[in-house]
Amino acid sequence: MVEILESCLVAPSEETPKHGLWLSNLDLAAARGHTPTVYFYRPSGDHNFFSVEAVKAALSKALVPFYPLAGRLDVGRDGRVEIDCNAEGALFVAARCDYTVDSFREFEPSPETRRLFVPTADSADAPLVVLQ
């Protein structure tokens, strides 16, 4: 079971350009959705090993040069799907579960491991990036 501790939007730490950005023809043909990936880290022994605030601050800084990732999909005036670079932010979810890294020695995607991901809203206004 996954326990959600916090869920918030993280915006770029500085002002970013506001404009529409066309998707490539390849992006237009690809299926829309998030690609779940997971990284496991063993604790270092430091009680601040994984600071949620530090991760959010780093994400906020990273969204400055990669500002389109803080936008939303939209339809431009010409009817073409584009990224609305509006700095609304990336979805950040802090969650925990009772599993350990050793529980995933032979990690393979499965319905059981998929349940570890917090579900995201599949709406037209969904963030382009979701971090958990």
Describe this structure in words.
With 132 residues, the chain is of the alpha+beta class. The protein has one domain (3-131): Chloramphenicol acetyltransferase-like domain (Chloramphenicol Acetyltransferase, 2-Layer Sandwich), CATH 3.30.559. The protein contains three helices and six strands. It has helices spanning 25-29, 52-62, 111-114, and strands spanning 3-10, 19-22, 72-75, 81-85, 90-96, 130-131. Strands 1-5-6 form a three-stranded mixed beta sheet, with helices on one face. The radius of gyration is 17 Å and the shape is globular. The two termini are 14 Å apart. The mean pLDDT is 83.
Give the termini separation: 14 Å
CATH architecture: 2-Layer Sandwich
Counted up, domains total: 1
What is the chain-wise order of helices and strands?
EEHHEEEHE
Low-confidence stretches: none
Mean pLDDT: 83
Q: What about the largest sheet?
A: 3 strands, mixed
* Content-based structural category: alpha+beta
Task: Work out the number of β strands.
Answer: 6
CATH C-level class? Alpha Beta
Assign the CATH superfamily: Chloramphenicol acetyltransferase-like domain
Question: What can be said about this structure in brief?
Answer:
The chain is built from 3 helices and 6 strands.
Features:
132 residues; three-stranded mixed sheet; Shikimate O-hydroxycinnamoyltransferase; CAT-like_dom_sf; globular; Chloramphenicol Acetyltransferase; 3 helices; alpha+beta; acyltransferase; 15% helix; transferase; acyltransferase activity, transferring groups other than amino-acyl groups
